[in-house]
Amino acid sequence: MKFNKIVLVLCFAGILLSCKSYLDSTKSTTLLDITAETDEDKFVNLKNYSNDFIYDMKYATADNFLKEKVYPCDECFLRVKTVKSLLAANKNFIEKGFKIKLYDCYRPRAIQRKMWKIVPDANYVANPRRGSIHNKGGAVDITLIDSLGIELDMGTKFDFFGEEASHNYLNLNDTIIQNRKFLKEIMLQNNFSSFDSEWWHYNLNGSKADKVENLKWKCN
Ligand SMILES: [Zn+2]
Questions:
Q1: Known binder of ligand: residue 134?
Q2: What is the pTM of this model?
Q3: Is the pLDDT of residue 220 over 90?
Q4: Overall fold of domain 32-217
Q5: pLDDT by residue (tens digit) across 181-197?
Q6: Residue 15: what pLDDT?
Q7: How many A from CA of 29 to the centre of ligand 1?
Q8: Among 40, 156, 169, 172, which is disulfide-ready with 176 (CB 3.0 to 4.6 Å)?
Q9: Is the distance from CB of 134 to CB of 114 less than 8 angstroms?
């Protein structure tokens, strides 16, 4: 926090030619209360507000369609309002014996550019000039795990590029359709919208109007 303020002051004074601010990935020793956060647009680390999520941040490893690690480490930053809705959704899932597993959260514009450089195809990666809701801190890529920690069968892997990943593709067995429906219903009840071609992607309602940000994080 202090560091960011100092950077802002220096930027304001025009002392630096280029101003860079970083998100603080230092973890709090105790869980923080998201309801105490009044700035809804601020970026925070989900890990500071709950121990009830499972993290499988695909872009912090080479286990993704780019076959490259593009995030420095597996942090999950989101805007406060996104975290509030996601915590509420996870609470609903937990009450039913499930938990959210995260594949992707906020993505800085610089990393979007990096991904675009590897795969410059708008069918697979959002053009960094416009950015995506991930660049705005309002999107999450998720699935569900059961009480034994086993992922629910959603029919395809995360980032599977094909019609089978679509909510509209119904040539799947009943279990898969029910699992997708279960995920979608609770997310929609908690102020998120689904994305037709990707069963794993959810946008916080209204987040399209937010700014694309380029706040990177340093790893501890
Ligand atoms: Zn996504």
A1: yes
A2: 0.90
A3: no
A4: Muramoyl-pentapeptide Carboxypeptidase; domain 2 (3.30.1380)
A5: 999 999 999 999 999 99
A6: 43
A7: 30
A8: 172
A9: no
